[in-house]
Amino acid sequence: MPQPTTVDPSPIAPTPRGQQRRQAVLDAALALFLEQGFAATSLDKIIERAGGSRRTIYQTFGGKEGLLEAVVTESCREILAQMSATALDSLSPKAALTHIAERFLAVLMQPERAALFRLVVAESTHAPKLGRLFMEAGPDSAHALVCDYLGKAVAAGKLEMDDLEIGASQFLEMVKGDLHFRALFYGESADAALQKRHVQSAVTIFLSGTLPSKHRQSTPPAD
Question: Is residue 208 assigned to a domain?
Fold first, then answer.
């Protein structure tokens, strides 16, 4: 797949109308990519659904490949925005980690997000740049957010851990569990109750090994 000539994630114009046009193109492209696949989706189909022109799309996104990259980047930004919408430092570790985990898992379990993930995996075989972009804007950014919170919590004496990088990875993987794979390969969407139980278990297990000893609940010795 040829590389895009340019990828410009900025709005078409610094006006509400320009932003609306750009968003309409992104929404149409995402819907068509997921409905018909990347190869079968033409710029003409996107223009037919969203309006605009080829010239505008090439000027803004650099073509269909650049448009896919912009769709992936915007989707990842939405996920991160939901995860960081609350001032985590003001919360208890349990509340902060629950906030992160609930929003992270809820987004991953959306059928549209699972379909986009499958699309990225398929296209990354021919366009490694897309895979790197997805990792940087999505998983790597989510990991950095968790790592940043954990570092602040450790500095404040709320948590104890030696390796923030590994701790952040382990926490997010526990949150995902097998639910994400089931959504990807089986099309299963865990209901809200199961997601809540999954999050509660992940947070409890993680805190059992990272809370300062004085804050951990003591367990009576076995007979």
Answer: yes
Mean pLDDT by 10 residues, the chain (223 residues): 44 64 91 90 92 89 90 85 77 94 90 89 87 90 93 95 95 93 84 92 95 61 36
| Residue of 181, 207, 202, 175 lying closest to 106 (CA atoms) | 175
* 14 assigned to some structural domain: yes
- Check: CB of residue 130 under 8 Å from CB of residue 69: yes
Q: Are residues 63 and 42 in contact, defined by beta-carbon separation less than 8 angstroms?
A: no
| Residue 9 phi, psi (nearest 5) | -75, 0
Q: Is 77 exposed, middle or buried (0-12, 13-18, 19+ CB in 10 A)?
A: middle
Q: What are the start-end ranges of the H helices in 2-127?
A: 16-36, 43-50, 54-61, 64-83, 93-108, 111-124
Domain limits for position 69: 1-74
Which amino acid type is present at position 5? T
Q: What is the CATH number of the domain that holds 43?
A: 1.10.10.60
Query: Domain check: are 7 and 49 in the same one?
Result: yes
Q: What is the pLDDT of residues 155-194, one digit of tens each?
A: 999 999 999 999 999 999 999 999 998 888 888 877 889 9
